[in-house]
Amino acid sequence: MEEPQDRPPLGRLQRPTLADDGGIVRYDGQMTTGTHEGIDRERLVAQLEGLAGWSGDRDAVRVVRAPGRVNLIGEYTDFNDGYVLPAAIDLEIAIALAPTDDGRATLTLAATGETAAVEIDDVGVAAGDWTDYVAGTAREMARAGQPVRGFRGLLVSTLPEGSGLSSSAALELASAWALSPAGGPAVTPLEMARVAQRAENEYVGVRCGLMDQFASACGVAGSAVMLDCRTLEHRAVALPPELVICVIHSGVPRTLVSSAYNERRADCERAVAAVRLQEPGVRALRDIDLEMLARATDLDRVAEMRARHIIEENDRVLETIDALAAHDLARVGELFAASHASLRDLFQVSCPELDLLVEISAGTPGVMAARMTGAGFGGCIVALAMPDAVDDLWARIERDYPARTSRTPRLWQVRAVAGASELSV
Fold first, then answer.
1. Considering 144, 234, 241, 325, which has the largest number of Cβ atoms within 10 A of its Cβ?
2. pTM value?
3. What is the pLDDT of residue 199?
4. What b/e string do you get for 385-397 counting C-beta neighbours within 10 Å, with b at 16 or more?
5. Residue 61 reports pLDDT greater than 80
């Protein structure tokens, strides 16, 4: 769970016709297949050449992309030095670009035609809009000693606005690849994720954890990726090939997230301080078990509830990995259900709409697991389902959910994909 503080707006990046009226959206492939409007490589290059003032060399044009992510399990554990299990997904940001030597990164948004330029050698102060992610990435790459070069580019996004699927991290990673020489950044994907995180922390001004940038940079096709947020050790966790990932948006905007996040972070810190009175070696909730929590004498009820969720959620991440390896889908479903109940009852970040979507999903034959994902108070749930169950799932949501909530849901059927990369010709 990444820190959901208010970020500069990213909504203008997205093509506005993508499922804005509700319904199932299936993306038939990654950008290399060219099967989805707006992400075909040759079409992007042609659009770039059609921009006003274009005078580049077609042979020098590059196309880079970076995916969004969905967190399968491990919510609010990241800032407690715990475990997370995100997957990079085939809702992405792509940039077609031609390198320049003018010291500028100039981008046009395909969705709106808006054009903006960033001086990469001296980015100045944050502007408070989407260009901050490009500028911050350029600054932090230069500070890390990475080569950066200007470009003229066209940006296309299939990441839906307000979905909580991490369009900000995708923009940072796509920008990093665009600013780098051909072949991509001269560091490991994990180190590039850390550079992008610093861009968001220190330039954009959002104190996010590493998970979003990590997932966008280090994603593995067909797999989720487990991250130990303390040691940064990570590994791919294969997902059952017969399952599809469904991300279902509640239609509820996440309006309370920033203040609620800060409150819950303070609750967790209060629990650590209480336990540390008896266990001086404790650094974070990662170090605490339920027995240690029970022995704490100076611990209020709210802090105890928050801590219990984190302790048990870390265990659930590891158990989910084991269950996936054993192909025990029933156990995965139990763990997802327990995670959602804990987020609802102990961490208190769910809402009636998310609870209803999980209820409908769990009651649909062929849906193996469902839980809220992300910061909560609206946003999305994630469900793992058999492919032939998706139409039935959507029919049940369409029948029951709007009538009981007056909200318009959306469903994206997505796949786990590789992390940020450059597309070959």
1. 234
2. 0.90
3. 96
4. bbeebbeebbeeb
5. yes
